[in-house]
Amino acid sequence: MSNIDAKFKAILYGLAIGDALGFQVEFSKLPHIYERFGREGVTDLPEDALFSDDTQMTIAIAEALVKAGDKDLESIMAEVRREFIKWLHSPENNRAPGNACLIGVENMETGIHWSQSGVADSKGCGSAMRVAPVGYLYQNQPEKLKEVASATGICTHGHPTGDAACIGAAYLVKLALDGIDPGDMVPRLLEFTKGISQEFDEAILKITHCLDWDDEDEALSCLGEGWIGEEAVALALYCFLRYPNDYKKTVLRAANTNGDSDSIACVAGGISGAYLGLEAIPRDWISRIEKSEYLEDLADRLAKVKNNKSG
Q1: Is 54 annotated as a binding residue?
Q2: Tens digit of each residue's pLDDT (9 = 90 or more) over 231-286
Q3: Domain ranges of the chain
Q4: Is 53 labeled as ligand-binding?
Q5: 3-310 belongs to which homologous superfamily?
Q6: Which single residue of 35, 109, 148, 194 has CA 20 to 30 Å from 75?
Q7: Can you name one GO molecular function term for this protein (predicted)?
């Protein structure tokens, strides 16, 4: 197994497991999580380790990239449209999908072009939560990464801040794959997304304000609840930066958050998986996550596309 092959397995397992950890407590505030699970909060995957629409839509993008290969943007988005419509009508699409995702895909299904199908004022985190495959495939083509990430995002979420969050989430996967020092990630991220959204910039800069606080719960409250894109990315990056060398601590911290815990832990898990690799993820979690064998096969197939691009 090449390092490239193993890395996308780590990203895909990393985000799916984070998603499943957080999915148990989505919509819950931290006091309710502690009341239900004890003072440590969520500490393990449930036996029935189901992931949410976050991973389902990530899978859709990965499948689209496998089918499109290294093609032009319209060809890529034609495949994204097909995979999103498949997801829309799947009987498994019953895990609290976001309204903007549903509306955007429905618009594409009616024939509205992807560049116009998104909900114009939506900056929800639904575009950022699913974009990790783009960061992986275009790791070494940052401008193509930006172009493709933006397109996969604005087809459902049209607000510039949502666009910045989606591009930023993909770029963080790229930085993690590059092995960039975690301490350099905030400035590198802000340089890459410069000029897209002041709201996004401000949300990311908040991390530097509260990263060293002793009270992590207070820091999380400072950063928000993650329902909107800039907060979800900021919270996920905060959790990774608190525990850059420990996948398990990163995703458990991300799952034990106020609000959109599955999306926060999904994004954080993808970044941590990209940075630390497959060996950092508990083996029993990999075997327990829903569709584990399928995820492995999908990772192999996208890795082949990346290998062919660089070969």
Answers
A1: yes
A2: 999 999 999 999 999 999 999 999 999 999 999 999 999 999 999 999 999 999 99
A3: 3-310
A4: yes
A5: ADP-ribosylation/Crystallin J1 (1.10.4080.10)
A6: 194
A7: metal ion binding
